[in-house]
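Q: Here's a chain of 272 amino acids. Please give me its 3D structure as C-alpha cells.
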Amino acid sequence: MTTRTYAPSVRVGNWNEDIQLEEDTIKDFLEKRERGELLIQKSADFSAIVLKGTALSVVNDGALHMGDCVQLVNPMAADRTKYFANIDPRDESCLSVNISASKLLAERKIAGTCQVSSSINHKSPYARNTFVIESVDGSPLQSQLHFNQPFCLRTTEDGGNLYLSSDTLTLQRQAKKSRHQEVLLVPERSFLCQWHVTYLDPQMRLEMEGRPVPANAKVLFVHSKTGQSLCIEEACKVKTMLGFEYEVTATTCLDSHKAEKECNHWIFKTGN
C-alpha cells in the first residue's frame, strides 16, 4: 500500500489518472446540481412538497360537516411524570402522511400507497396532515356529521387524494414495530376506508348516537370493518425525513374500567 507524500500538483505515479479522476468528480457534481439530484436539493424539494401550507375549515355551529378540512390531533398525556430515563411522556401529535423520500422525489408529489405516522414537531396545517371528511352514504356537502355515521377521511389534493384505510390483522399485514393492525393511505376508496366517530364516554354512547359530532372535542375514531380505534403507539417511534414520529395503528386499548385509554383519544381540529 502506497501513501502520497507529495502535494497534488506534483506529478508522481499515476498523475494523469488522478487529474482525470478529479475532473470527472467535478463534472459529475455539476451534472447532479443541474438535475437537482444533490442531497441538499432533494431535502429542500421534500420539505416544499410535504410542508406546503393548507387552510382548515371554519365551523360556525360547532359541529363537523361533510367536506370540512380538518386535522386529527392526539392530545398529550395527562400524566407528565417521566418514569424512565429514556422515555418521555407522550406529546401532542398530529396524524400525518409518512412517505419515503425516494418515492416522493421520484413522483415529485405525494402519491400511491403510503404509511401514516403522528408528527410531534410539525403540527401546523400542511399538505401531509390535513384531511377532508368525505361522505359515503350520499349525505350532501356541508351536512353535519353524526356519531356512528360512516365516512372516509381523505388527504387534500396537495396530499395526493389518498384515503385512510385499514384491514384485519394477519401475519403478513401488520404494523412494522408494534405488530398491531396496520393503517395505510391508499389511492382508491373501498369499504376498508370507512370510519366512524364514537362518543368518548362509554356510558353515554347510546344516548349520543345520531347526534352531531362536535369539532375540537375528544372523540374515538373507529374503523368500521374491524371495530378497532385509531391508536398512537407511544412506545414505538418511526424514523422519517422530518424526524422521529409515533407509529399509528388501529388498536383499541382499554383500561381497568373498560374505557378507551388516552392513546385512542382524538380531536378533529378545525380553523376556529
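Q: Can you summarize the key feature?
A: The chain has a mean pLDDT of 87.
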